[in-house]
Amino acid sequence: MSLWPPPRSTRHSAKRRKTIIVAALVGALIGLAAVGSVAWALRAGSGGPDTGGSVPDSHAGTWSGDMSQEDDEGRHVTDWHVQIKLESGEERGSADYSMDCRGSLTLREREGDRLVFDYVETYDRDGRCIDESELYLEPGSSADVLDARWEAVSHDGVPMTSTGTLR
To answer: Less CB within 10 Å around the terminal CB: N or C of the chain?
Structure first.
């Protein structure tokens, strides 16, 4: 007769461990889904800007106008002409500059009638155009006018802002 108890079987403890792990994972997934749906509901009801979306009818069409560029200290740098093409219901558009530059526009944010686009250069024959910038468009003084503001950083690292009216 032995003074020590017989060894316990480990056959059932592995099964119990798996059940606990699976239950914990299912609980975590349910918790994440609940947090995600609450966050989505709060964002949808917040009245904040929508990310992405599409171009509304009010901004659709071919718009062109002159832009006045200033550096970060408000000094005039140059004037340039731009033509923007936007299609209703689309997320993308295009821009052509008088400096022989072209680029694509991707709608990043929409807050009411104000649209924010990311601009990425697709053509720059002379290597003097800005590679990336942001374009802000909102209704102007009449139905056939958009106020435009471009924000970019020059090749030398100087922040630049260009404003103008597009018709």
So the answer is: N
Q: Which CATH class is domain 57-166?
A: mainly beta
Here the tokens at position 32 are 């994440």
Residue in 146, 138, 151 with CA at minimum distance from that of residue 62 = 146
Q: Is 158 helix (H, G, I), strand (E, B) or coil?
A: coil
Lowest mean pLDDT among 25-39, 74-88, 108-122, 141-155: 25-39
Please give the Cα distance from 119 to 121 (Å, whole number): 7
What ranges do the domains of the chain cover?
11-47, 57-166
What pLDDT, in 10s, does the model give residues 26-47? 766 686 676 666 555 555 444 4
How many C-beta atoms surround the C-beta of residue 6 within 10 A?
A: 6
Structure pTM?
Answer: 0.68
Q: Cα dihedral angle (73, 76, 78, 79), rounded to 10 degrees?
A: 120
Largest CA distance in the chain: 102
Tokens at residue 3, please? 């003074």
Count CB neighbours of 117 within 10 A. 25
pLDDT in tens, 101-125: 899 999 999 998 999 999 999 998 8
Tell me, what amino acid is at 56?
A: P
Whole-angstrom Cα distance, residue 135 to residue 107?
A: 9
